[in-house]
Amino acid sequence: MNASATARSGRIKARRAARGSGVEYAARAGLTARGVIYLLVGVLALRIAFGDGKKQAADRNGAVAEIAQQPFGAVLLWALAVGLVGMALWRLSEACFGSAGPDGRAAKKRLLSAGRFVFYAFVAYSVLSFAAGSGSGGKGSSDQQSRDVTAKVLNLPAGQWIVGAAGVGIVVAGLLIGGRAVLRKYHKKLKLGQMSARTRRLVDVTGVGGGAARGLVFAAAGCFAVRAAIDYEPDRAKGLDDTIRSFAHTPAGPWLLVCVAAGLVLFGLFSFAMARWRRI
Fold first, then answer.
1. C-alpha to C-alpha distance for 130 and 137, rounded to whole angstroms
2. Which phi and psi (to 5°) does residue 190 adopt?
3. Which of 9, 108, 113, 159 has CB 3.0 to 4.6 Å from 94, enough for a Cys bridge?
4. Nearest C-alpha neighbor of 176 from the set 219, 207, 227
């Protein structure tokens, strides 16, 4: 067997492995882990909206800290970390071999999967660090991380343009996330034939409400980044926690924060539904 045939055989085996049950289990574990994080972030945001938990961060670090305080918290943290590793591996397999669906091997989708792999690899690493005893689910809160990164980028040549462009990109991403949720684009990814009519209605409630809230949070965070670029002031940038808290300071008052928080809880539940019925 020549070298090209050996390489081709290796690629075929790798592609089969990427379509195998191991990757499917990893994907479903990852979606479950994502659901846990969003569910807890939503609950923490609800506490803030009703005047409780002001010292708790409504972000990933806050969710991880909340898990750690529960009975068997260490075990739960390791389980969450393993699920996030599974999510990262699933996205890596999609980047390398394509995802489910007729256009799953399109360059655009594979590039998006590569970006998601990098993101979830970082998230998994931060949770693993916390579970291993570092005492932090990452280097500081999401707010401090956002300010630090913004400050570093602003000091680069054309830094204002870079931060501004990134902020606009996040706003557009948020609008797309919310719009696709409202239009129920996620139906293409679900095994609808295995769901009863009642289950589909419940999934739509979580998918539409959760996706819209998630998109709104993304768009708001992007707006703060754009403002930081325009004002050349890193402190204008906000992480997830400060972005969520900012909804309480709008004319709608705390009730908008309640709606957003409830939406994030719904997105957590939607992630559980995706773990059950998503096409992998």
1. 5
2. -105, 150
3. 113
4. 219
